[in-house]
Protein backbone atom coordinates (compact mmCIF):
# COMPACT_ATOMS: atom_id res chain seq x y z
CA UNK A 1 0.00 0.00 0.00
CA UNK A 2 1.25 3.49 -0.84
CA UNK A 3 2.39 5.43 2.23
CA UNK A 4 0.68 8.70 2.98
CA UNK A 5 3.87 10.71 2.57
CA UNK A 6 4.53 9.20 -0.85
CA UNK A 7 0.93 10.00 -1.80
CA UNK A 8 1.55 13.58 -0.70
CA UNK A 9 4.61 13.96 -2.93
CA UNK A 10 2.93 12.20 -5.86
CA UNK A 11 -0.16 14.43 -5.59
CA UNK A 12 2.03 17.55 -5.70
CA UNK A 13 3.73 16.23 -8.84
CA UNK A 14 0.51 15.27 -10.62
CA UNK A 15 -1.39 18.46 -9.86
CA UNK A 16 1.61 20.58 -10.83
CA UNK A 17 1.59 19.04 -14.30
CA UNK A 18 -1.06 21.69 -15.00
CA UNK A 19 0.09 25.28 -15.35
CA UNK A 20 3.84 24.83 -15.74
CA UNK A 21 5.55 28.11 -16.65
CA UNK A 22 8.65 28.59 -18.78
CA UNK A 23 10.67 29.68 -15.74
CA UNK A 24 9.98 26.45 -13.87
CA UNK A 25 7.18 27.84 -11.75
CA UNK A 26 3.42 27.40 -11.96
CA UNK A 27 0.71 29.72 -13.29
CA UNK A 28 -2.62 28.28 -12.23
CA UNK A 29 -4.87 31.29 -11.84
CA UNK A 30 -8.23 30.80 -10.12
CA UNK A 31 -11.16 29.72 -12.30
CA UNK A 32 -9.12 29.33 -15.50
CA UNK A 33 -8.71 26.27 -17.70
CA UNK A 34 -5.44 25.31 -16.01
CA UNK A 35 -7.14 25.54 -12.64
CA UNK A 36 -9.96 23.35 -13.96
CA UNK A 37 -7.53 20.67 -15.17
CA UNK A 38 -5.68 20.67 -11.85
CA UNK A 39 -8.95 20.33 -9.95
CA UNK A 40 -9.97 17.40 -12.16
CA UNK A 41 -6.66 15.68 -11.39
CA UNK A 42 -7.17 16.29 -7.68
CA UNK A 43 -10.65 14.77 -7.77
CA UNK A 44 -9.20 11.80 -9.64
CA UNK A 45 -6.61 11.31 -6.88
CA UNK A 46 -9.33 11.52 -4.23
CA UNK A 47 -11.41 8.86 -5.97
CA UNK A 48 -8.35 6.62 -6.33
CA UNK A 49 -7.68 6.81 -2.59
CA UNK A 50 -11.20 6.17 -1.31
CA UNK A 51 -12.62 9.65 -0.80
CA UNK A 52 -16.22 10.60 -1.50
CA UNK A 53 -16.08 13.92 -3.34
CA UNK A 54 -18.42 16.92 -3.22
CA UNK A 55 -18.04 20.32 -4.89
CA UNK A 56 -20.01 23.24 -3.49
CA UNK A 57 -21.56 26.28 -5.19
CA UNK A 58 -18.35 28.35 -5.15
CA UNK A 59 -16.02 25.56 -6.22
CA UNK A 60 -14.66 24.30 -2.91
CA UNK A 61 -13.81 20.60 -3.19
CA UNK A 62 -14.45 18.35 -0.19
CA UNK A 63 -13.19 14.79 -0.05
CA UNK A 64 -14.45 12.59 2.81
CA UNK A 65 -13.40 9.21 4.15
CA UNK A 66 -16.19 8.15 6.44
CA UNK A 67 -15.71 6.92 9.98
CA UNK A 68 -17.69 4.32 11.89
CA UNK A 69 -20.16 7.02 12.93
CA UNK A 70 -21.01 9.19 9.89
CA UNK A 71 -22.89 11.69 12.06
CA UNK A 72 -19.78 12.49 14.10
CA UNK A 73 -18.12 15.84 13.33
CA UNK A 74 -15.29 15.43 10.82
CA UNK A 75 -11.66 16.34 11.35
CA UNK A 76 -10.58 18.29 8.28
CA UNK A 77 -7.36 19.35 6.62
CA UNK A 78 -7.24 21.82 3.76
CA UNK A 79 -5.67 24.60 1.73
CA UNK A 80 -5.73 25.69 -1.95
CA UNK A 81 -4.24 24.78 -5.33
CA UNK A 82 -4.60 28.02 -7.31
CA UNK A 83 -1.44 30.12 -7.68
CA UNK A 84 -0.20 33.60 -8.39
CA UNK A 85 1.21 34.16 -11.91
CA UNK A 86 4.52 32.30 -12.25
CA UNK A 87 4.19 31.14 -8.66
CA UNK A 88 5.70 28.26 -6.74
CA UNK A 89 5.06 24.54 -6.74
CA UNK A 90 4.26 24.20 -3.03
CA UNK A 91 2.24 27.23 -1.87
CA UNK A 92 -1.17 25.86 -0.89
CA UNK A 93 -0.87 22.62 -2.80
CA UNK A 94 1.48 21.09 -0.22
CA UNK A 95 -1.21 21.49 2.44
CA UNK A 96 -3.80 19.79 0.25
CA UNK A 97 -1.44 16.94 -0.65
CA UNK A 98 -0.32 16.54 2.98
CA UNK A 99 -3.98 16.30 3.97
CA UNK A 100 -4.55 13.49 1.47
CA UNK A 101 -1.55 11.60 2.79
CA UNK A 102 -2.32 12.23 6.46
CA UNK A 103 -5.88 10.95 6.11
CA UNK A 104 -4.55 7.82 4.41
CA UNK A 105 -2.01 7.22 7.19
CA UNK A 106 -4.49 7.85 10.01
CA UNK A 107 -7.09 5.57 8.44
CA UNK A 108 -4.49 2.80 8.16
CA UNK A 109 -3.36 3.22 11.78
CA UNK A 110 -6.93 3.46 13.05
CA UNK A 111 -9.26 1.67 10.61
CA UNK A 112 -12.17 1.89 13.06
CA UNK A 113 -11.90 5.66 13.56
CA UNK A 114 -15.21 7.23 14.56
CA UNK A 115 -14.93 10.69 13.03
CA UNK A 116 -15.02 11.18 9.27
CA UNK A 117 -11.75 12.53 7.86
CA UNK A 118 -11.89 15.28 5.27
CA UNK A 119 -9.64 17.14 2.86
CA UNK A 120 -10.99 20.52 1.74
CA UNK A 121 -9.63 22.48 -1.23
CA UNK A 122 -10.75 26.10 -1.10
CA UNK A 123 -11.15 27.90 -4.42
CA UNK A 124 -9.77 31.30 -5.38
CA UNK A 125 -7.36 31.75 -2.48
CA UNK A 126 -4.93 34.05 -4.28
CA UNK A 127 -5.88 37.70 -4.83
CA UNK A 128 -3.87 38.16 -8.03
CA UNK A 129 -6.83 37.86 -10.41
CA UNK A 130 -9.67 39.78 -8.75
CA UNK A 131 -7.88 41.80 -6.08
CA UNK A 132 -9.73 39.82 -3.42
CA UNK A 133 -8.34 36.74 -1.71
CA UNK A 134 -9.85 33.59 -0.21
CA UNK A 135 -13.03 33.60 -2.27
CA UNK A 136 -13.99 30.04 -1.36
CA UNK A 137 -13.28 30.18 2.37
CA UNK A 138 -14.80 33.65 2.73
CA UNK A 139 -17.97 32.60 0.93
CA UNK A 140 -18.63 29.62 3.23
CA UNK A 141 -17.89 31.55 6.44
CA UNK A 142 -19.97 34.65 5.70
CA UNK A 143 -17.13 37.02 4.81
CA UNK A 144 -18.12 37.43 1.15
CA UNK A 145 -21.57 38.46 -0.01
CA UNK A 146 -23.32 38.15 -3.35
CA UNK A 147 -22.65 41.86 -3.86
CA UNK A 148 -18.92 41.21 -3.39
CA UNK A 149 -19.08 38.59 -6.15
CA UNK A 150 -20.30 41.29 -8.53
CA UNK A 151 -18.08 44.12 -7.28
CA UNK A 152 -14.67 42.46 -7.64
CA UNK A 153 -13.42 42.20 -11.23
CA UNK A 154 -10.27 41.13 -13.02
CA UNK A 155 -8.28 43.15 -15.58
CA UNK A 156 -10.70 42.09 -18.33
CA UNK A 157 -13.69 43.33 -16.37
CA UNK A 158 -14.91 39.82 -15.53
CA UNK A 159 -16.54 39.71 -12.10
CA UNK A 160 -16.02 36.93 -9.58
CA UNK A 161 -19.69 36.07 -10.11
CA UNK A 162 -19.28 35.63 -13.87
CA UNK A 163 -16.04 33.68 -13.45
CA UNK A 164 -17.79 31.28 -11.08
CA UNK A 165 -20.77 30.90 -13.41
CA UNK A 166 -18.47 30.33 -16.40
CA UNK A 167 -16.79 27.64 -14.27
CA UNK A 168 -20.11 25.81 -14.02
CA UNK A 169 -20.81 26.93 -10.45
CA UNK A 170 -23.76 28.66 -8.75
CA UNK A 171 -22.49 31.59 -6.65
CA UNK A 172 -26.03 32.88 -6.17
CA UNK A 173 -26.58 29.80 -3.98
CA UNK A 174 -23.40 30.24 -1.92
CA UNK A 175 -25.38 30.44 1.34
CA UNK A 176 -26.22 26.75 0.96
CA UNK A 177 -22.55 25.94 1.56
CA UNK A 178 -22.12 27.90 4.80
CA UNK A 179 -20.02 26.12 7.42
CA UNK A 180 -21.64 25.77 10.85
CA UNK A 181 -19.82 25.19 14.17
CA UNK A 182 -21.25 21.67 14.29
CA UNK A 183 -19.84 20.78 10.86
CA UNK A 184 -16.28 19.97 12.01
CA UNK A 185 -14.43 18.95 15.15
CA UNK A 186 -11.23 20.64 14.02
CA UNK A 187 -9.57 22.09 10.94
CA UNK A 188 -5.84 22.01 10.15
CA UNK A 189 -3.85 23.72 7.44
CA UNK A 190 -0.25 22.74 6.73
CA UNK A 191 1.60 25.36 4.70
CA UNK A 192 5.08 26.45 3.74
CA UNK A 193 6.11 29.38 5.93
CA UNK A 194 6.65 31.76 2.98
CA UNK A 195 9.26 33.52 5.08
CA UNK A 196 12.88 32.76 6.10
CA UNK A 197 12.59 32.13 9.86
CA UNK A 198 12.31 28.32 9.94
CA UNK A 199 14.82 27.85 7.14
CA UNK A 200 17.43 30.08 8.75
CA UNK A 201 16.99 28.84 12.32
CA UNK A 202 16.83 25.14 11.43
CA UNK A 203 13.57 24.69 13.36
CA UNK A 204 11.36 22.07 11.71
CA UNK A 205 7.83 23.16 12.60
CA UNK A 206 6.08 26.43 13.28
CA UNK A 207 2.84 26.25 15.25
CA UNK A 208 0.97 29.35 14.14
CA UNK A 209 -0.39 31.41 17.01
CA UNK A 210 -2.03 34.18 14.96
CA UNK A 211 -2.56 35.13 11.31
CA UNK A 212 -1.94 38.66 10.10
CA UNK A 213 -4.92 40.51 8.70
CA UNK A 214 -4.47 42.26 5.36
CA UNK A 215 -5.85 45.75 4.88
CA UNK A 216 -5.90 46.47 1.15
CA UNK A 217 -6.55 49.71 -0.70
CA UNK A 218 -6.88 50.70 -4.33
CA UNK A 219 -5.74 54.27 -4.93
CA UNK A 220 -6.30 56.36 -8.03
CA UNK A 221 -4.20 59.50 -8.39
CA UNK A 222 -5.63 62.06 -10.80
CA UNK A 223 -3.31 64.77 -12.06
CA UNK A 224 -3.07 66.35 -15.48
CA UNK A 225 -1.32 65.04 -18.59
CA UNK A 226 1.02 67.55 -20.23
CA UNK A 227 3.85 67.76 -22.74
CA UNK A 228 7.06 66.68 -21.04
CA UNK A 229 9.06 69.42 -22.71
CA UNK A 230 6.60 72.31 -22.70
CA UNK A 231 5.17 72.09 -19.16
CA UNK A 232 7.36 73.85 -16.52
CA UNK A 233 8.24 71.78 -13.44
CA UNK A 234 6.45 74.11 -11.02
CA UNK A 235 3.20 73.93 -13.00
CA UNK A 236 2.91 70.15 -13.25
CA UNK A 237 0.26 67.90 -11.73
CA UNK A 238 2.32 64.74 -12.02
CA UNK A 239 0.29 61.71 -10.91
CA UNK A 240 3.31 59.40 -10.88
CA UNK A 241 5.41 61.74 -8.75
CA UNK A 242 2.54 61.89 -6.25
CA UNK A 243 2.30 58.10 -6.35
CA UNK A 244 6.00 57.84 -5.57
CA UNK A 245 5.50 59.85 -2.40
CA UNK A 246 2.66 57.53 -1.39
CA UNK A 247 4.86 54.47 -1.95
CA UNK A 248 7.60 55.91 0.27
CA UNK A 249 5.02 56.90 2.90
CA UNK A 250 3.76 53.30 3.08
CA UNK A 251 7.33 52.07 3.53
CA UNK A 252 8.17 54.64 6.23
CA UNK A 253 4.95 54.16 8.21
CA UNK A 254 5.34 50.37 8.21
CA UNK A 255 8.98 50.59 9.31
CA UNK A 256 7.88 52.70 12.26
CA UNK A 257 5.66 49.77 13.34
CA UNK A 258 8.23 47.02 12.77
CA UNK A 259 8.35 46.20 16.49
CA UNK A 260 4.75 44.99 16.12
CA UNK A 261 5.61 42.93 13.00
CA UNK A 262 3.44 45.13 10.80
CA UNK A 263 4.43 45.41 7.14
CA UNK A 264 3.32 47.56 4.24
CA UNK A 265 3.68 46.97 0.51
CA UNK A 266 2.73 48.68 -2.72
CA UNK A 267 2.73 45.74 -5.09
CA UNK A 268 1.05 47.22 -8.15
CA UNK A 269 1.50 50.56 -9.93
CA UNK A 270 0.01 51.58 -13.26
CA UNK A 271 0.72 54.83 -15.11
CA UNK A 272 -1.38 56.54 -17.76
CA UNK A 273 -0.81 57.28 -20.58
CA UNK A 274 2.53 55.56 -19.93
CA UNK A 275 4.67 57.20 -22.62
CA UNK A 276 8.05 58.87 -22.26
CA UNK A 277 7.15 62.37 -23.45
CA UNK A 278 3.93 62.91 -21.47
CA UNK A 279 3.68 63.97 -17.83
CA UNK A 280 1.55 61.21 -16.25
CA UNK A 281 -2.00 62.43 -15.78
CA UNK A 282 -3.26 59.40 -13.91
CA UNK A 283 -1.85 56.50 -11.94
CA UNK A 284 -3.13 53.76 -9.67
CA UNK A 285 -1.66 51.88 -6.73
CA UNK A 286 -2.61 48.76 -4.80
CA UNK A 287 -1.55 48.92 -1.16
CA UNK A 288 -1.27 45.97 1.25
CA UNK A 289 -0.87 46.59 5.00
CA UNK A 290 -0.84 43.63 7.35
CA UNK A 291 0.18 42.44 10.80
CA UNK A 292 -1.02 40.62 13.90
CA UNK A 293 -1.58 43.76 16.01
CA UNK A 294 -4.79 45.54 15.05
CA UNK A 295 -3.83 48.87 16.66
CA UNK A 296 -0.52 48.89 14.81
CA UNK A 297 -2.27 48.28 11.49
CA UNK A 298 -4.67 51.13 12.30
CA UNK A 299 -1.76 53.50 12.93
CA UNK A 300 -0.27 52.74 9.51
CA UNK A 301 -3.67 53.06 7.82
CA UNK A 302 -4.54 56.35 9.54
CA UNK A 303 -1.05 57.70 8.93
CA UNK A 304 -1.34 56.90 5.25
CA UNK A 305 -4.65 58.76 4.98
CA UNK A 306 -3.01 61.86 6.48
CA UNK A 307 -0.06 61.55 4.11
CA UNK A 308 -2.42 61.28 1.16
CA UNK A 309 -4.14 64.51 2.21
CA UNK A 310 -0.78 66.26 2.41
CA UNK A 311 0.42 64.91 -0.94
CA UNK A 312 -2.86 65.81 -2.62
CA UNK A 313 -2.61 69.41 -1.41
CA UNK A 314 1.10 69.90 -2.08
CA UNK A 315 1.01 68.45 -5.60
CA UNK A 316 -2.45 69.68 -6.58
CA UNK A 317 -3.71 66.20 -7.50
CA UNK A 318 -6.86 64.31 -6.52
CA UNK A 319 -6.44 61.01 -4.71
CA UNK A 320 -9.38 58.61 -4.69
CA UNK A 321 -9.32 55.57 -2.42
CA UNK A 322 -11.26 52.33 -2.25
CA UNK A 323 -10.78 50.00 0.70
CA UNK A 324 -10.75 46.53 -0.87
CA UNK A 325 -10.61 44.69 2.44
CA UNK A 326 -9.94 45.43 6.08
CA UNK A 327 -9.59 42.32 8.19
CA UNK A 328 -8.81 41.68 11.83
CA UNK A 329 -5.84 39.56 12.97
CA UNK A 330 -6.96 36.05 13.86
CA UNK A 331 -5.75 34.12 16.92
CA UNK A 332 -5.91 30.37 16.31
CA UNK A 333 -7.37 27.78 18.70
CA UNK A 334 -5.35 27.53 21.91
CA UNK A 335 -6.25 23.90 22.65
CA UNK A 336 -5.15 22.67 19.22
CA UNK A 337 -1.96 24.75 19.40
CA UNK A 338 -1.17 23.17 22.77
CA UNK A 339 -1.85 19.70 21.37
CA UNK A 340 0.44 20.33 18.40
CA UNK A 341 3.17 21.47 20.78
CA UNK A 342 2.75 18.27 22.82
CA UNK A 343 2.90 16.17 19.66
CA UNK A 344 6.14 17.84 18.59
CA UNK A 345 7.65 17.39 22.06
CA UNK A 346 6.66 13.72 22.21
CA UNK A 347 8.04 13.06 18.72
CA UNK A 348 11.21 15.10 19.40
CA UNK A 349 10.43 17.49 16.56
CA UNK A 350 11.94 20.95 16.87
CA UNK A 351 9.13 23.50 16.95
CA UNK A 352 8.22 27.04 17.90
CA UNK A 353 5.16 29.24 18.23
CA UNK A 354 5.14 31.90 15.52
CA UNK A 355 2.86 34.35 13.73
CA UNK A 356 1.85 34.13 10.09
CA UNK A 357 2.48 37.27 8.09
CA UNK A 358 0.60 35.88 5.11
CA UNK A 359 -3.14 35.36 5.02
CA UNK A 360 -4.58 31.86 4.70
CA UNK A 361 -7.93 30.12 4.35
CA UNK A 362 -7.50 29.00 7.97
CA UNK A 363 -8.11 32.53 9.22
CA UNK A 364 -11.70 32.48 7.93
CA UNK A 365 -12.42 28.89 8.94
CA UNK A 366 -11.19 29.83 12.43
CA UNK A 367 -14.17 32.16 12.87
CA UNK A 368 -16.42 29.09 12.91
CA UNK A 369 -14.32 25.97 13.62
CA UNK A 370 -11.42 25.28 16.05
CA UNK A 371 -8.44 25.75 13.73
CA UNK A 372 -4.67 25.30 13.79
CA UNK A 373 -1.85 25.79 11.30
CA UNK A 374 1.48 24.02 10.84
CA UNK A 375 4.32 25.79 9.05
CA UNK A 376 7.15 23.91 7.36
CA UNK A 377 10.31 25.56 5.98
CA UNK A 378 10.79 26.70 2.41
CA UNK A 379 14.29 27.32 1.08
CA UNK A 380 15.37 30.90 1.72
CA UNK A 381 11.83 31.84 2.66
CA UNK A 382 11.10 32.40 -1.04
CA UNK A 383 7.46 32.06 -2.10
CA UNK A 384 5.06 33.43 -4.71
CA UNK A 385 7.95 32.88 -7.09
CA UNK A 386 9.16 30.27 -9.56
CA UNK A 387 12.20 30.01 -7.24
CA UNK A 388 10.04 28.59 -4.42
CA UNK A 389 11.55 25.32 -3.17
CA UNK A 390 11.28 22.88 -0.28
CA UNK A 391 13.63 20.17 0.96
CA UNK A 392 11.76 16.89 1.29
CA UNK A 393 13.54 16.03 4.53
CA UNK A 394 12.46 19.29 6.10
CA UNK A 395 8.76 18.96 5.34
CA UNK A 396 8.56 15.41 6.71
CA UNK A 397 8.56 16.49 10.42
CA UNK A 398 5.59 18.81 9.86
CA UNK A 399 3.80 16.05 7.97
CA UNK A 400 4.44 13.59 10.83
CA UNK A 401 3.08 16.11 13.34
CA UNK A 402 -0.06 16.54 11.23
CA UNK A 403 -0.66 12.79 11.09
CA UNK A 404 -0.12 12.39 14.82
CA UNK A 405 -2.36 15.26 15.90
CA UNK A 406 -5.22 13.94 13.75
CA UNK A 407 -4.64 10.42 15.10
CA UNK A 408 -4.83 11.65 18.70
CA UNK A 409 -8.06 13.51 18.01
CA UNK A 410 -9.77 10.55 16.33
CA UNK A 411 -8.73 8.13 19.09
CA UNK A 412 -9.40 10.41 22.05
CA UNK A 413 -13.14 9.74 22.35
CA UNK A 414 -13.21 6.07 21.37
List the helices and strands and how they pair.
Layout: H1 4-15, H2 33-48, E1 52-55, E2 61-65, E3 75-79, H3 93-109, E4 117-121, H4 135-141, H5 146-151, H6 160-166, E5 186-192, H7 197-201, E6 205-211, E7 213-222, E8 226-227, H8 239-256, E9 263-272, E10 278-279, E11 282-291, H9 294-315, E12 318-326, E13 330-331, H10 334-346, E14 351-356, H11 362-365, E15 371-376, H12 392-412
Helix pairs in contact: 1-3, 3-12, 8-9, 10-12
Précis, in short:
Homodimer. This protein is of the alpha/beta class and 414 residues long.
What CATH calls the topology of the largest domain is: Aminopeptidase
Strand segment count: 15
What's the CATH superfamily of the largest domain, by name?
Zn peptidases
Mean pLDDT: 96
Sheet with the most strands, sense and barrel status? 9 strands, mixed
Number of domains: 2
In DSSP terms (H or I, runs of 4 or more residues), the helix count works out at: 12
Secondary-structure class = alpha/beta
The CATH architecture term of the largest domain is 3-Layer(aba) Sandwich
CATH class of the largest domain: Alpha Beta
Percentage beta strand:
15-25%
Element-by-element helix/strand order: HHEEEHEHHHEHEEEHEEEHEEHEHEH
Q: Which geometry do the CA atoms define?
A: globular
Q: What percentage of residues falls in helices of 4 or more residues?
A: 25-40%
* Unreliably modeled segments: none
Roughly how many Å apart are the termini?
26 Å
Radius of gyration equals: 23 Å
Amino acid sequence: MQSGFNLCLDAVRRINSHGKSETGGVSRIAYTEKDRLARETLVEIMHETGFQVEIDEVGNIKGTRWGSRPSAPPIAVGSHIDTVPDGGKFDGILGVAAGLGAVLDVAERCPDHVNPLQVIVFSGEESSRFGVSNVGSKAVTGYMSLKDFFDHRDDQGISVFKALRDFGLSPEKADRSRILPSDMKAFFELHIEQGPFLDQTGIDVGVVEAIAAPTRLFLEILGESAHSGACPMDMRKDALAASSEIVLAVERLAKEESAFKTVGTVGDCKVFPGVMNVVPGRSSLKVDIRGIDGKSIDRVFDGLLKEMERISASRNVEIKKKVISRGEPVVLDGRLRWLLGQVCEDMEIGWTDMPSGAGHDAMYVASVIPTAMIFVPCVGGISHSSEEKVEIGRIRPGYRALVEVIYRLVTKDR
